[in-house]
Every structure is written in structure tokens, then in C-alpha cells.
Amino acid sequence: MKISKKIIKSLGKLIAGDTGVAPYMSGPELVDFYNEYGFDDEYGQGFPSRWVYSTEKISDSNDSINLQKILEDFVDPRRFIGTNKNVEGVVDEVNKLIKIDGYTLITDGELYKITSTHGNFIQEESLTVIGHEFIKEQVEKCQQKIRSEDYNGAITNARTLIEAILIHIIESIHKTEVKNDGNLLNLYSRAKKALKIDFRKDEIPDSAFQVLSGLDSIVNGLSGFSNNAGDRHANKFNTKRHHAKLVVNSAMTACDFLVDVLNEKK
Asked: What sequence ranges are listed for the domain Abortive infection protein-like C-terminal (predicted)?
């Protein structure tokens, strides 16, 4: 997640509690809060002003997945228990600052998650640490769309997740940048060859071939389904909740397997 320098100071003051909207955090509390995201600071003599310290941490976290985590944890409703501050008001203030850069906080059950207002729910920097936890986070975002009855959006996100995994596999093995032309089947074919799981029927037992063929069917089906039902295209299919769940769960299964194979090779 990357934001413009113009709003970093405002976010630093907001998190420190200097604006009166969010709960006040003392110097030691700020140190404890930011140390959760990889910093190793100590509060003591020479410690800068609270808002200055907070601003420095936001600046240091900019253009990384840490900034997303900081903002999401900052508006965790559990932090507001026992205070006279309203989490919804804080979310509104954060959104006012980050919306111009293309981000917004949305509800995810009882919590809040950062999403892109440009339609891409996957942050680019996440691809460098892609793995099972990444897949879980992205599937949770798909499920949030299902809960909000945005079934076509969930299908589009599931396709984007698979595209991200396939691109990461190809780039990790071949050490080359992949330009995504939107051809999911081409990406899948390249990823299978890179992973060396592009077997012919006579090369492996029938049962293993059938299982791997099922993986092929998932990707092929998702490619066609997202073209017809995804919100990137005119909706040619009356997408229901169970359709969206099937697509999202199938995408998770495929991605989980592919990441396992990649990790095994590494």
C-alpha cells in the first residue's frame, strides 16, 4: 500500500490521538503499537514528539504491506472499548485521507479491511510474501463480497487471486517479469510447465491424473465463468450466492495446491 507524502503527517497525528478523533496514545503506547509491525524502538530520553514519532513510522511503512496492517489495526473496534471515541468516526477520518490515493476501509464482519477503490483487491507488494496466509486473506475479502451480495465482484476477485498466484510462480522460477495480458489459461499453462506438473496421461497413475485434471477444470471453468459472470463484463449469467461460493472455494483449493508445489520446489 502506497500513499502520497501529503497525508502522512495527518495520519501520524490521527493515530497519535492529537486530532481529538481517535483515542490518545502516550509515547510508550505508540512505541508498543508500532513495534507490532517490525520496529524495535524504546521509549526514553530523547524521544521525539508523539506525533513526530508516529509520522516517522507511517513514512517508514509507506509502500509496504505494513501500512495496510497499521491502518486496519488502528481501527480495530476492540481498541475503542472503554473510550469515549467512536470507531466509525475514526474510519471516516482515515478514509478522507486515503481515498484520493485509491484506498478505503470497508467492513469485514466486525473488523475493517483496506481495499482499493480502483477494483483491484490485491496489493502489489503482497506478491513478494505470497503464500497460504496471503491466499487466506484474499479469500476472506472474496467472502466479504459474498456477504454483501456482490457475487460478481467475488468471482472477479477469485480470478484476480489465481492470476496473482500464477504470475508469482512464473516469476519466482524463471526470474523474469510477467506482463499479464488477461489470458488466464496461458498463465496457467506456463505455471504448470514451470512447476513441472504438466503431465501426460501415460506418465502418472490414473487417479493422480484425474485429480490434476480436476485442477485444470477449475482454472478453465473459472476463466469462462468470470468472463460471463464477473463484474468485468456484461453479466450473461444470473449469478447466485452458491455459484460465487463454489468459484471462491475452488480458487482457494487451486491456489493452495499450487503454492504448496512451489514451496516444495524451493
From this structure: 186-260
CA 227 to chain centre: 22
If you search the block for the grid coordinates 496471503, which residue do you land on? 134
pLDDT tens digits along 169-183: 998 888 877 877 778
Tally of CA atoms within 13 A in the half-sphere of 87 that contains its CB: 18
- 7 touches 15 (CB < 8 A): no
pTM above 0.70, yes or no: no
**pLDDT tens-digit series, residues 61-84:** 998 888 989 999 999 999 999 999
Residue showing cell 501520524: 12
Whether the Cβ atoms of residue 160 and residue 121 lie closer than 8 Å to each other: yes
Q: Which domains does the chain have, with CATH numbers?
A: 5-116 (no CATH), 124-265 (1.20.120)
What phi, psi does 117 have (nearest 5°)?
-80, 0
- DSSP-H helix ranges across 130-183: 132-147, 151-174
In angstroms, rounded to a whole number, what is the distance separating the alpha carbons of residues 149 and 147? 5
Nearest Cα to 124, choosing from 96, 163, 92, 151? 163
